[in-house]
Amino acid sequence: MDFKMRSIIYEYKLSDLEDEITVYILEHPSEVAQMKINSLAAKFYTVSNTISRLCHKLGYSGFLELKRALSDEAFDGQAKKLSNQEILLRNFELIDEEKMQEAIDLFQNAKQVNIFSLSTTGYAAHIIMDHLNCLDYKFVFFEDINDVNEKIEMMKVKKDEVSFFISLSGESELLLSIARHLKEKQQAIVTLTHLSNNALAKLGTVNLFCYSPERLIGKMRVPDKTPLLIVMDQLFSLYLSSSYHSGI
Question: Less crowded by CB within 10 Å, the N or C end of the chain?
Fold first, then answer.
């Protein structure tokens, strides 16, 4: 997992200062790979322990490992084309059980969980949602999102419900308009998107990620749904385990 991926996945753990340092590292990876820890700390008028804590939050053993990783990533090159197997393996690296448990807690405490997804992504999501309904019959899949969007201003938003948005791009204006409305009404939102700083994830209470980079056949976008299913199946497995232990 490279530094950029870690910066997105573990962003929820970072303070404002740590966010600033992370942005600096993203913009100056080669420079930081050659720096001493106290030099980086001095740029932000802080101490070396702040940098060490940031490294640990991002999953590194320390600043030396972070620097080695930055050097390796620069050597490998960002344009390297990953094989299908490498793409799938990245999804297992992305699974953050702490975040998944936060989502599961929201689902279990909710009176109803509303699922929003579009087109072929929706077909894939439906598979796991059917499994979840076998455990806990409160997951409602909204098939006609256009109809929901037209009626959204009249919807009675219930705070004891949770909405789960599943979108690889995270940029569908149709889904975003519904999510914005629900956020304004203070309903909890869980998102599952491709790993990126997308608009939908910015609206989420809890954000989950898979890794499914854009795939083109000719000029047609044909995204791979397998990464989505890997992450959702893990969510299902943890929900099953959590439900068993809580007696649901």
Answer: C
227 vs 243, more confident: 227
Q: Between β-strands 139-142 and 206-210, what pairing exists: parallel, antiparallel or unpaired?
A: unpaired
According to DSSP, the residues that pair with 8 across neighbouring strands are: none
In eight-state DSSP terms, residue 6 is H
For 165, phi then psi, to 5°, come to -105, 125
Q: Model-level pTM?
A: 0.81
pLDDT at position 150 is: 67
Positive or negative: CA dihedral 149, 150, 153, 154? negative
**Rounded-to-integer distance, Cα 212 and Cα 14, Å:** 25
Using an 8 Å Cβ cutoff, are 248 and 108 in contact? yes
What is the token pair recorded at 232? Answer: 């959702």
